[in-house]
Amino acid sequence: MIRARMRSSSAWHDVCILNVSLHGLGVQSAEPPARGTYVEIRRGRQTIVARVAWNKGHRAGLRSQDPIFLTALLNDTSGEAPAAGKVQGLSNAATRHDRPILMPRAALPAGQSNLQELRP
């Protein structure tokens, strides 16, 4: 699992990223947002804007229009994710920080797909 922060509406919440695909995330949160809600996920300097495709219990599936870079999520521990409380400004998905190159499928170990269960 990867710890991150999620903004929905005007509040930040702790989330755990359970799985990642090229355009999707599975997350677990104490307060998962409703289906159709747009959310922002942050880990270090990485920002993902996504829409909630489904939720059940404390879990939700998110769909992003932009590619999600697994290597960046795993390795970016620099910077702090936003603290709980009031949002100071809205992020602009079009003005993202440096994006690393997505690891090609051929570079993945045999038997693994882009959808990977993440374990500590």
Provide the descriptors you would attach to this structure in a database record.
mainly beta, 1 helix, single chain, globular, 6-stranded antiparallel β-barrel, 120 residues, Thrombin, subunit H
Descriptive notes:
This protein has 120 residues and is mainly β. The protein has a domain at 1-73: Thrombin, subunit H (Beta Barrel). It is 5% helix and 41% strand. It has one helix and seven strands; from the N terminus they run E-E-E-E-E-E-H-E. It has a six-stranded antiparallel barrel with strand order 1-2-3-6-5-4. A hairpin with a 2-residue loop joins strand 1 (2-8) and strand 2 (11-21). The N and C termini lie close together (6 Å).
Q: What is the approximate shape?
A: globular
Strand order of the largest sheet: 1-2-3-6-5-4
What is the top-level CATH class of the domain at 1-73?
A: Mainly Beta
Q: Please state the structural category.
A: mainly beta
Oligomer: single chain
Q: Mind telling me the C-alpha Rg?
A: 14 Å
- Residue stretches low in confidence (pLDDT < 50, at least 5 long) are 84-109, 112-120
Give, in order, the helices and strands: EEEEEEHE
Number of strand segments: 7
Number of helices: 1
Query: How much is the average pLDDT?
Result: 74
Largest sheet: 6 strands, antiparallel, barrel
Q: What's the end-to-end separation, in Å? A: 6 Å
**Architecture (CATH level 2) name of the domain at 1-73:** Beta Barrel
Give the CATH superfamily of the domain at 1-73: predicted glycosyltransferase like domains
% residues in beta strands: 35-45%
Organism: Sphingomonas daechungensis
Protein name: PilZ domain-containing protein
